[in-house]
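> call design_seq(struct)
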């Protein structure tokens, strides 16, 4: 599984690529979890 961290200002977005071509992401803001979800990889 591939992990990727993206920094946007103070926010950190952690993206996990799942085997089925689906990405799950977690939003962080200074240690606080803002939200999470899944998005399907578009071909």
């Amino acid at each position: 599984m591939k992990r990727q961290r993206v920094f946007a200002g103070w926010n950190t977005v952690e993206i996990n690529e799942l085997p089925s071509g689906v990405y799950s992401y977690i939003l962080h803001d200074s240690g606080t979890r803002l939200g999470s979800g899944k998005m399907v990889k578009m071909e």
